[in-house]
Amino acid sequence: MAQGRSLAVPYGAPVLAVSFLACVTTGLELSVNNHAADFTLSTELGPAISLSCLVQNSSQAEELLWYRGDGQVGLKEGNRVNISHICISPVNESDNGVTFTCKLARDKSVQVSVILDVQFPPRLSGEETLYVEEEKDVTLTCNSKSNPQAQSTWLKDNQSLTLQQSRHELYQTSELFRLSIRKVHKSDNGTYSCLVQSPLGNGMRDFHLIVEDKKPVFPKEAVIAAVVVVTVTILFGIVARKDKFFKVW
C-alpha cells in the first residue's frame, strides 16, 4: 500500500502542472486598438494608421508576433513584449482587404485580427484610341478600381448609349467594365465614355473608336493557282523545245 501511495504523487503532479499552465494560457487575452475580437478597420488612402496589440491578464513578460497575411512582420527588440505597435504608412490600395494579426508567441491560438477596409474613389485606365476595320468585332475595356464598388455606365458622344441586344454586350466585375460591339459600322465611329460613380466621387475615361474602311480581300488562292498554271506552262514549253535547247548548248 505504501508503494501505491508513493507512486500516486509523481503521477498526479504533472497533471496538476499541465492543468495550471492551461489555465494561465487560457486566461491570457489580446486586444488590438481596444478590440478583443477580430474586427474591420475602415480607413482612407494616404494617412498612416497605427495598430497596437496589448496582452491582457498577464503576470509575466509575454512575447508578441505580428503577421501581414501569412507573412511575419519584423519587430524591433523593444516592441514585442506585452505591448507591440506597427505602423502602416502610407496606406495604399494594395492594403485593402489585407489582414493584420497579432499572436501570442508561446500559444499562437491566442490572437486578434484586423482587416483593413481602405476606401478610395474610382481610378480608371484603358486604351484610349482603337482602330477597327468595318464589320469586325471590337471590345472597349475600362479598368475601374474603387472601394466601395462603383456603378458604371457607357456614353457615346456624351449621350447615353443605346444598347442593341444583337450587337452590344456588357461585362462587369469589381475591377473591370467592358463593352463589346459586334460587326462595327461606320455609324459606330465616335467617343465612348466609361462613367463610374461612387459615394467617394466620380470618374470618366474616354475611348475614341475609329472605324476604318473594309480592306479588299487578297485573292490568295487565285494567285497561287495562276502561279501554278504559269509554271506548268513554262515547263511544258521547255520540254517541247528541248531539242532546240540541246542544239544551242
Automatic annotation (TrEMBL):
Its cellular-component GO annotations read:
cell-cell junction; plasma membrane
- Identify the keywords attached in UniProt to this record, alphabetized: Disulfide bond, Glycoprotein, Immunoglobulin domain, Membrane, Transmembrane, Transmembrane helix
Q: Kindly give the PROSITE patterns that the UniProt entry links to this protein.
A: IG_LIKE (PS50835), PROKAR_LIPOPROTEIN (PS51257)
**GO terms under biological process:** cell-cell adhesion
The leader peptide range reads none
Instruction: Identify its membrane topology class.
Output: Single-pass type I membrane protein
List where in the cell it is found: Membrane
Q: Ig-like domain: from which residue to which, for each copy?
A: 14-113, 122-212
Which terms does the record give in the GO molecular function aspect?
cell adhesion molecule binding
Fetch the SUPFAM superfamilies from UniProt: Immunoglobulin
Tell me the superkingdom of the source.
Eukaryota
The membrane spanning regions, by residue number, are 222-240
Record protein name field: TMIG1 protein
Native source species? Polioptila caerulea (Blue-grey gnatcatcher)
Gene behind this chain? Tmigd1
